[in-house]
Amino acid sequence: MSDQGGAVSDQGGAVSDQGGAVSDQGGAGNDQRGAGNEAADWWATAVSRIEPDVIELRGHPVQDLIGRIGFAEMVWLMLRGERPDPRGAALLEAALVSSVDHGPHAPSIAAARMAATCGVGLNNAVATGVNLLGDVHGGAGEQCVGLLEEVVREGDATAVVARRRARDKYLPGFGHRFHTRDPRRDPLLGLVAEAVADGVVPGAHLRAAIEVERLIEPVPMNIDGATAVVYAELGFPAPLARGLFVLSRSVGILAHAWEESGQGRRNKGPIPPSILPTWL
């Protein structure tokens, strides 16, 4: 009996151990749920919601957007979380179209074309070009939005221009190496003027840009200045002016990289092989 009782006692201990194991499992389950919630919070986003059989972009089921929304409208929706007025979307699209390319003398285009001959993938060639878009090449639109906001805020273009020119001979968004009058300026500013007349945008940044151009003539407004007017009038913050330029110029970079990849060159350099470099 004593042995049996001991056996029973041991069994009871085993049951107690099992209960402890169950308790431990419950703790592990709670830990897993807590970790899952923490991970969900870590990657929380208002941009998209992805679940099995569900894709929502800014709260819109993707199937409701496909075939019903243009790309410029999609860009606006993704960046700002709301559908744009069609006239605002048309203005955004005009700015995106205007900036797609400026030839292989642009460093970003040249670099992408050279990269495409080096055995890298098309995505790497595009990334090579995009990664060259910085403060000097590609950043003037963002800087010009800042300039225009300064003029609008202070209400004195003369003072702003004088202050800027005292520290830098360049005004972002004005002047061009090739064009005495950038052929993209007038169409874009004309569309902005129409949007102002229709009450789509307020017009303060357009007036600021024209006043700055008047003060520094004959230096003309360039594409960075014209697109800066569009983006500022549409309410995009200055850093997004650069982001939108990168988005636009990526189209040209892709086109050049694709063309170059089909021409059969290998290890294309900055000058033709027949021209010997000068060693200094």
Automatic annotation (TrEMBL):
GO cellular component: cytosol
GO molecular function: citrate synthase activity
Keywords: Transferase
Database matches in CDD domains: CCL_ACL-C
An annotated GO BP: carbohydrate metabolic process
Pathway participation: Carbohydrate metabolism; tricarboxylic acid cycle
Family recorded in the similarity comment: Belongs to the citrate synthase family.
Protein name (database record): citrate synthase (unknown stereospecificity)
